[in-house]
Amino acid sequence: MTTKAKKYDFREIEGKWQKHWESSGLNRAAADPDPKNKFYMLVMFAYPSGDIHMGHFRNYIIGDAVARQQMMFGKSVLHPFGWDAFGLPAERAAIGRGVHPEEWTRQNVEVSRSTLQKAGISYDWSREVNSCRPDYYKWTQWMFVQLFKKSLAYRKRGFVNWCPEDKTVLANEQVKDGKCERCHTPVVKKDQEQWYFKITDYADRLTDDLDSLPGWPDNVKTMQKEWIGRSYGAEIDFVIEETGEKLPVFTTRPDTIYGVTFMAIAPEAEIVQRLNLEGEDKKKVEEYKHKALARNDIERAAVTEDKDGVFTGKYAINPFNNERVQLWVADYVLAGYGTGAVMAVPAHDTRDFAFAKKYGIPIKVVIHPDEKTSLDPDQMPDAYVDYGPMVNSAHFDGLSGDSAIKSVTEFASQKSIGRSKVNYKLRDWLISRQRYWGCPIPIIHCAKCGQVAVPESDLPVLLPKVENFMPKGRSPLADVPEYVRVKCPECGGEAERDPDTMDTFVCSSWYYLRYVDSANSREPFGRERAAAWMPIDLYVGGITHATGHLLYFRFFQKFLKDIGWAADSEPATRLFNHGMVMDSKGEVMSKSKGNVVSPVALMEQRGVDVTRLAMFFTAPSEKEVLWSDESISGVEKFAINKFFPLASLFRRSEPDLKCYFKHDHLSDFEWQLYVKLNQTIKRVSDSFERLQFNTAIAALMELVRDYDADRVKNDVFNDYLILKTIQLAAPMVPHMAEEMWEITGQADSIFKSRWPVHDPEAVVGDTIEVAVQVNGKLRDSVTVAADADQKAVEEAAFESQKVLKFTQGKQIVKKIYVRGRILNIVAKG
RNA sequence: GCGAAAGUGGCGGAACUGGCAUACGCGCUGGAUUUAGGAUCCAGUGCCGAAAGGCAUGGGGGUUCAAAUCCCCCCUUUCGCACCA
Question: What is the ipTM, given to two decimal places?
Answer without folding.
Answer: 0.94
